[in-house]
Specification:
With 430 residues, the protein is of the alpha/beta class. The chain has helices at 14-26, 79-84, 148-160, 173-184, 205-217, 316-331, 397-408, 416-422, 424-429, and strands spanning 2-4, 7-10, 34-37, 87-90, 95-99, 104-107, 112-114, 117-120, 124-126, 142-143, 165-169, 188-193, 221-224, 228-233, 239-244, 249-251, 254-257, 261-263, 274-275, 278-280, 292-294, 299-303, 309-312, 344-349, 352-358, 363-369, 376-383, 386-393. The protein is globular. It starts with a strand and ends with a helix. The structure holds flavin-adenine dinucleotide and NADPH dihydro-nicotinamide-adenine-dinucleotide phosphate. Flavin-adenine dinucleotide (FAD) binds next to helix 1, helix 6 and strand 24.
Length: 430
């Protein structure tokens, strides 16, 4: 049993949705020539909603409300949209092997799907505690968060213990966003992570202090610089407490785990070049095979702004842009220059909202008011007298654009003390 397509997008997440949109915009295929194969049972959706709108106690986001590409361009790519545009959605279908030389994919249902061009958009999977030697994370009240099923479980578990205790493992993006959502749902939160402050890979201690104080003012507790070692469970197998390295027990009606991800490269190990834990591509998002492209979380691609250093970014803006770039490169190779991407990360928790652009390397220069409950503060990272990265909490659209511009243009810094004094005005006046 088999089918053949000209273009196959493997994976049905954020990148897949934006790749499909780009195919339609460019009109670069005929009906029936393009398909998306996804293990998920629904059309591509905006994954960031799962740790934000999806977890709201009232007026929560639900599909079809947040399919791609809502918010980005007002077009909502529902299953109907794919049908109308002649794109085959092969949903609920896991690809179990890929043969790059033969240009075929084998699905768990036994179907062989062949392609002329393949776009790998398999994203990533959440790391499990078992991978750190801790067992029992399959308990009914332990939640991970990567897809819709995980989000539904999280919502149900949350609803089963109103006013209860949650232990959040990990101080990264999932930990911070889920902790805020749990607090909003009136659940008492204790966050546990090994670093000395939250969001350690991006935030400076000073930035982290602001958010930690804010969370504390909302009732959250931080247990930093340690890890859990095991769980205590009741006779039904439900976790009742989390046991830390120092033997301390934290009571838990539920646990949320966000300890990082692993790019889903497995199908292509040994067939394509890998780097940074992902599939290595060039500035056209082309892998080491001339018919195979990789985009989104799974792709390690050159960042021109960082002198061509290869990076794998685990963020939605990068997924959207790399996906569209790959389609442009497939359909109009001679007109498509190498991608010139400015790394962009953001988060929204409670009423707070921050954006970051570039690279957090070099000397840090903080600016703004770190004491206000309606804050507007930030930081620049300066290396070799040039701005390399910029962070801003509470900015307006124009202000975010201004900080992105100084990073994009590597604005020259003549005097660090002057930069500190000017703060945000430095970016606005540039
Ligand atoms: P994904 O969206 O993960 O899609 C991968 C798809 O491939 C999935 O549909 C998966 O089922 C499918 N797949 C994988 N293997 C197979 C296979 N063998 N066969 C068939 N299908 C397969 N980023 C931000 O910048 N801002 C945010 O606020 C933000 N919030 C987030 C909140 C949550 C809860 C999560 C989990 C992530 C968030 N991110 C955020 C990160 C962002 O969502 C990812 O960077 C983005 O989804 C990556 O897109 P992708 O298409 O590469 O991968
Ligand atoms: P992150 O990499 O952001 O954070 C993982 C955190 O868990 C780190 O603080 C890490 O510490 C810590 N950790 C690792 N191992 C353990 C352990 N054994 N016990 C306790 N803590 C541990 O990953 P997340 O899981 O938070 O997020 C998953 C993905 O989702 C990421 O790709 C992220 O980009 C994406 N996402 C993005 C959002 C956004 O951009 N706004 C929102 C939500 C998710 P260490 O650094 O020491 O390893």
């Amino acid at each position: 049993m088999g089918r053949a397509f000209v273009h196959v997008i493997l994976g049905g997440g954020v990148a897949a949705g934006y790749a499909a949109l780009e195919f339609v915009r460019r009109g670069g295929y005929s009906r029936g020539e393009l398909c998306i194969i996804s293990e998920e049972t629904v059309a591509p959706y905006e994954r960031p909603a799962l740790s934000k709108g999806y977890l709201l106690p009232e007026g929560a986001a639900r599909l079809p409300g947040f399919h791609t590409c809502v918010g980005a361009n007002d077009e909502l790519l529902t299953a109907k949209w794919y049908k109308e545009n002649g794109i085959e959605l092969v949903l609920g279908t896991k690809v179990i092997t890929a043969d790059v030389r033969m240009k075929t994919l084998l699905t768990a249902t036994g179907e062989t799907i062949s392609y002329k061009n393949l776009i790998i958009a398999t994203g990533a999977r959440a790391l499990k505690l078992e991978e750190f030697g801790i067992s029992g994370s399959d308990a009914s009240n332990i939640c991970y968060l990567r897809n819709l099923d995980d989000a539904d479980k999280l919502v149900n578990v949350m609803k089963s213990c109103p006013g209860g205790n949650a232990v959040v493992i990990g101080g990264g993006y999932i930990g911070m966003e889920c902790a805020a959502a749990l607090v909003t749902n009136r659940i008492k939160v204790t966050m546990v992570f090994p670093e000395s402050h939250c969001m350690a890979r991006l935030f400076t201690p000073k930035i982290a202090e602001y958010y930690e104080n804010y969370y504390t003012s909302k009732g959250a507790t931080f247990v930093k610089g340690t890890v859990l070692t095991s769980f205590e469970k009741d006779s039904t197998g439900k976790v009742t407490s989390v046991i830390l390295k120092d033997g301390k027990h934290l009571p838990a009606d539920m646990v949320v785990v966000g300890i990082g991800i692993r790019a889903s490269t497995g199908l292509f190990e040994g067939q394509l070049l890998m780097e940074q834990g992902g599939i290595k591509v060039n500035g056209q998002m082309l892998t080491s095979d001339g018919s195979v492209y990789a985009v989104g979380d799974v792709a390690a691609f050159p960042i021109k702004l960082f002198d061509g250093v290869i990076r794998r970014l685990e963020h939605v803006d990068s997924a959207r842009r790399t996906a569209r770039h790959a389609v442009a490169a497939i359909l109009e190779p001679s007109k498509t220059k190498d991608i010139d991407y400015l790394p962009f990360f953001y988060s929204r928790v409670f009423t707070l909202s921050w954006q970051f652009y570039g690279n957090n390397t070099g000397e840090v220069v903080h600016f703004g008011d770190f004491t206000n409950s309606s804050p507007r503060f930030g930081a620049y990272w300066v290396d070799k007298s040039r701005i390399r990265g910029a962070f801003l909490e509470g900015g307006s659209r124009e202000e975010y654009e201004a900080i992105s511009n100084v990073v994009r243009h590597k604005a020259k810094v003549i005097n660090i003390a002057e930069l500190e004094k000017q703060g945000l005005m430095f970016a606005i006046q540039e």
